[in-house]
Amino acid sequence: MEESDVHIDVSGNMEPPKEDTKLGGFNMSSFTSFSARIPSLWELLRLTRQNVRPWSEFLQTANFKTVASVPRLTNRIIRNLGYFQSNYLFVFLGLIVYCLLTSPLILIVLGGVFYACYKIKQANTPVAFFSRQLNTNQQCIAVNVASIPLLYLAGAGAVMFWVLGASFFVISLHAAFYNIDAIVTEDTETFLTETV
């Protein structure tokens, strides 16, 4: 019996196994890529402002009608929320501005917080706090956290719940009674909501 030499090629590049981000620790690279996709507040407001439906159409009283059945009511609410979502956001923001203007203590606290953060950003100097250097962003976060008890004393909790309740009430009333079928058919609605 003849013995032959068997040659097995074991050369190549080996890569370590990838870490399982679902079960493993926190993956910072996925977090930074996620935060890079989040638009800024001004970008979000600009995009929302571009999608606002005409206010004359939004407030047209001839289109307010009751609905015959509960399934049709659910369908109407969903379609109105999708069609008028930017208008509803501006209704919510309008109620926030109304509450701020009618609650001067909250306005004073928020003005002080914005002024302190502006001065911190303008100075751009790190501060030592318990043997730790705080950069300007961390200092602004500390000012915001320190303002929470002042906002609570000024009644911001009650204002927040009032804004949420009033927004929910106004938006649900509009979405339930506004007859969207008078202005948009289901065929044109899918055409209008498509992104190009």
TrEMBL record:
Keywords: Membrane, Transmembrane, Transmembrane helix. Residues 1-21 are annotated as: Disordered. The chain crosses the membrane at residues 88-116, 150-171. PANTHER family: PRENYLATED RAB ACCEPTOR 1-RELATED, PRENYLATED RAB ACCEPTOR PROTEIN 1. Belongs to the PRA1 family. It is a multi-pass membrane protein. This is PRA1 family protein. GO terms for cellular component: membrane; synaptic vesicle. The keyword Membrane applies. It comes from the Eukaryota. InterPro entries: Prenylated_rab_accept_PRA1. Coiled coil: none annotated. It is found in: Cytoplasmic vesicle, Secretory vesicle, Synaptic vesicle; Membrane. Its main location: cytoplasm.
